[in-house]
Design goal:
Layout: H1 18-24, E1 29-33, E2 38-40, E3 48-54, E4 56-62, E5 68-75, E6 79-80, E7 94-97, E8 101-107, H2 108-117, H3 119-144, H4 148-158, H5 175-182, H6 186-198, E9 202-205, E10 208-211, H7 214-223
Antiparallel strand pairs: 1-8, 2-7, 3-6, 3-8, 4-5, 4-7, 9-10
Length: 224
């Protein structure tokens, strides 16, 4: 079924013409993933650009000790595999569907040609990637120097800001997922969440976490 580019959930596609969309659609595939399926794995070179049209993806690093370090959550409008356009032959991350997912797989060569001929689109994607990378670097850099309470407070703030601000992402995450973002144990994560609730910083309803006192949580994130 032919899809009009204007129906896609990302503003950057308003910068291309229908002709350009038709050109990159020659080898385009619509892919569905089930919750828990991998979209890409560390060490395997991406051979296509994946554009997420619906759903959420967990981006993480697999360590040599069979542990996971969660890095980010991707959602509709995000790309996976853009580095393949630059000839990168390795992937440092693994990507797993947090929900049932719909995506559009685009031929790398065709997408590269589009960016070479549409500088406005290329610059917008570069700006978006830079802003996302800066936010990630700031979060993970600050995380390094925190005690466990500060780590978890910083993580809760990170997961409720920027592109995830208008949703409650916690209903999609286990306590272990949150622990792997914060870099602390599952046990400590559960313990500190309950302490935060007793202090009135958050409210826990099953898997959901609602921030009640953001100012105090930011204080813990700064001094913890």
């Amino acid at each position: 079924m032919k899809t009009n580019f204007s129906e896609l959930p990302i503003s950057c596609f308003s910068l291309i013409t229908q002709e350009e969309w038709d050109a990159i659609s020659v080898d385009r595939k619509i892919i569905s993933y089930k919750k828990g399926e991998l979209l890409g794995k560390k060490g395997i070179a991406p051979n296509q650009v994946i554009f997420i049209t619906e759903g959420f993806v967990l981006k993480y690093i697999e360590t040599e000790k069979n542990r996971s370090v969660n890095v980010d959550i991707l959602r509709e409008g995000d790309f996976i595999g853009l580095q393949s356009i630059l000839g990168v032959t390795n992937c440092n991350y693994t990507y797993k569907a947090l929900t049932n997912l719909s995506a559009c797989a685009i031929n790398t060569s065709l997408f590269k040609t589009l960016l070479e001929t549409n500088s406005t689109l290329a610059l917008k994607l570069l700006k978006r990637a830079t802003e996302d990378e800066n936010a990630l670097m700031e979060f993970h850099a600050h995380l390094t120097y925190k005690q466990i309470t500060g780590k978890l407070a910083l993580t809760l703030l990170f997961l409720t800001e920027h592109r995830l601000k208008e949703i409650n992402i916690f209903r999609l995450l286990s306590r272990k997922d949150i622990a792997d973002f914060a870099g602390i144990s599952h046990i400590n994560t559960t313990k500190i969440l309950k302490e935060f609730e007793r202090e009135g910083l958050i409210k826990l309803i099953e898997k959901d976490i609602y921030i009640v006192n953001r100012e105090q949580l930011e204080h813990y994130a700064q001094v913890g």
